Amino acid sequence: MADEVQSETVRRLTLAGFVVDHVTALDPHPVGPTAGLGDPDPVVWEGVTWAESFWRADGCDVDFGCLGFDFDGQPVVGARNRDLGFLDGLGFFDIRLTPCTLEHLQVHAWYHGTIDLAATTDGCCSIPRNDWYVGNGAQEGYFFAAAGGGSASRPCGPTGGCSDAGRVVPTAVPALVNGDFEFGAGQDGGWRWHGGGGPATIVEAAGNAFLQLEPGAAERTHNWFIVPAAATELVLDWRVVGADSGAALEARLIDAAGVAHVVGSLAVATTGPWQLDEALPLPASIVPGDRYLLQLRLAPVPTIATVDVDNVRVEAGGPTFLRSDCNDDGATNVADAVSALSFLFGGGSVGCDAACDANGDANLDISDPVYQLANLFAGGAAPPAPYPSCGVDPGTGLSCAVFATCP
């Protein structure tokens, strides 16, 4: 697994509450703009018990124009790092195309030799044990994995790495990978493989990358992704160059059974500037928590129009509020039940019907103040989200014109 993919996988696991015991990076290397990929740096996330990096660098890297597909690895902040520089040995004029003359491949072979202590090859590269290891490799590399039997011998650091400083707190990740196409034309992660793909291309102009759909390349599909539980809309930026009446930009979510659910259709009849934050409500047929492909396409295919798309994301739309805070004072107490009763039976008014729907059943009626009083005084269940902090309506459909105490 590529180190940046491994890093992203670990981030998502830690965000989901899993403790990741062991992460090994083998010659980690972000592949920068010269190679046309623009990978992110691998990092060590907080929540990882033991992190290690085995790397080498001889100063000749494919990203800086060296011949052959070789990389210079690098240490990873927050991990126990070991420089395998003794694997370096190529001359400057070596074309680096012969199998196993690349030090990058030899790093992987070195680690393989710490897993299988009898191996003299990893199936590609030879493993010269007398030159590569101390003690035949028995207490190196894989030894520090729990499955390797030496996890109790991890040498340093309060959580296993030799420098915990610089570990990164995992931040939330979007449902759509590379929805802003930041990786550009050379690295279309999120929009290829695993169900994704299509002829429409990612292009770069004026320092910005975006998806371009046109008559000869009118479709692109994002990989499988999980629709978040709170998601209510698909949001994107788009513009039309070269009007074509009758054509439209269509967004569809395709489920595991192959059924296409149309999210929205935007006419491309008029050339114009970027339309920002265009929100398309998710259809009621979409099941939060299920997996879908997102397909953007021109339908019917225009004869001349080009449509550019950027910053595609799935969001929870609508105003934020706090459920059961019916009087909008920032607290949930008996005064809210009184406000709900006044609205229902005494001619009172409220600014956010959804906030008064204390039981979250999409109806505002006597059951809501009863539910709230039971929660406050009789040990009844707490209100459903958004509670106990502000959030958006997860799909009840009740109005919320004004709610001042939530951002």
Structural class: alpha+beta
Coarse shape: flat
How much is the radius of gyration in Å?
Answer: 28 Å
Strand tally is: 14
- Roughly what is the average pLDDT, rounded to an integer? 85
The fraction of residues in strands falls at: 15-25%
Report how far apart the termini are.
41 Å
How are helices and strands ordered from N to C?
Answer: HEEEHHEEEEEEEEEEHHHE
Count of helical segments?
A: 6
Helix content: 10-25%
Looking across the biggest beta sheet, what order are the strands in? 4-5-12-7-10
Low-confidence stretches: none
Largest sheet: 5 strands, antiparallel
Describe this protein's structure:
This protein is α+β, with helices and mostly antiparallel strands and 407 residues long. 14% of the residues lie in helices and 22% in strands. It has helices at residues 3-15, 103-115, 129-132, 334-345, 353-356, 367-377, and strands at residues 20-26, 48-55, 80-83, 201-205, 208-213, 219-226, 233-241, 248-254, 260-267, 275-281, 291-298, 306-315, 320-321, 391-392.
